[in-house]
Amino acid sequence: DVRARASDPDPALLRRGSEFAERQRAQRERLKLPAFPTTTIGSFPQTEQVRKARADHTAGRIDDAAYEQFLREETARTVAWQEKVGLDALVHGEFERNDMVQYFGEQLDGFAFTRHGWVQSYGSRCVRPPIIYGDVARPAPMTVEWWRYAQSLTAKPMKGMLTGPVTILNWSFVRNDQPRQRTCRQIAFAIRDEVLDLEAAGAPMIQIDEAALREGLPLRRSEWDAYLEWAVACFRIAASGVADTTQIHTHMCYSEFNDIIAAIGAMDADVISIETARSKMELLEAFRSHGYPAEIGPGVYDIHSPRVPAVEDMTELLELATKRLSPDQLWVNPDCGLKTRKWPEVEPAIVAMVEAARRLRETVKTPAPSNAG
């Protein structure tokens, strides 16, 4: 029963099996990644063709089989391209997803959607937030088949890609007949079940994005701690069911961490990727002064601009990062997903990013190579 499960969860459900250092050893033995491993945040460009195919499918102009075949071809092309340019941890590209919340809401019980309920997100970008009207449950796996297909195309690790419970809550219109945290816990258990299904299918790393964790902070500073306590607990419910060898990633895209760094640490993810390119890595100061123990992917290029950064720009940012954190902690990735960019911008930028990581491996000594057992 959804309500019973979410009403008073066993504290053991909020804890990973081991401390981070032990998990890190197990994951490195399994993944055998190089130092400064490279990855992307999840989405690749949603081209005009992708948007047209989605619109045609929605309007009934193409059937399910034709649409699925189109998506599989886009996914296969993107996986092959990532392999060709030398990325270390791959993603499937998310071509089947219209929006990082709507995609999940459409597959969960308790969500309703509008046809015309558009809300401005920023600039000309608009979204249609779902309405959470009832108890949230997951009737069936949501992402496992796409992950399985993408992983079948490569021997490199393929990340499972999920939106976190707090972000789904904060980017929805939420029922007001029960506390927000109770609704969030229901979402967290639905995501937990998905995480465990991905792990059972063989996913070595699973990313649970919490892009909107900070957005939910109450206006009154005095209420922050209570919010952060249940928000972190919900993330941990979603993430903590996996074995030590399964690497949990999270992603956050905003530029103010100092005042919530303790909560970010308490989330206990194995890897966090953050938006730092425009701040010249200054954001890492919060992680350094907090003694953040886990691995961090500070964004090395700003995806909100069409500018393609030079290898030297990214190498310089990574060198700045190594002055604030142990080189052994660092991943190399863009600031955010690449959904809104165009392929001619993305291709040279990712090639340059992979080259920047390669140069760093040659010049910076990491305390322990990332494939150490």
From TrEMBL:
EC number in record: 2.1.1.14
Record bears the keyword Lipid metabolism: no
CDD domains: CIMS_C_terminal_like
Alphabetical keyword list: Metal-binding, Methyltransferase, Transferase, Zinc
Residues covered by the Cobalamin-independent methionine synthase MetE C-terminal/archaeal domain: 36-358
Region (Disordered): 1-29
Protein name in UniProt: 5-methyltetrahydropteroyltriglutamate--homocysteine S-methyltransferase
Species of the source: Endobacter medicaginis
Lineage: Bacteria, Pseudomonadati, Pseudomonadota, Alphaproteobacteria, Acetobacterales
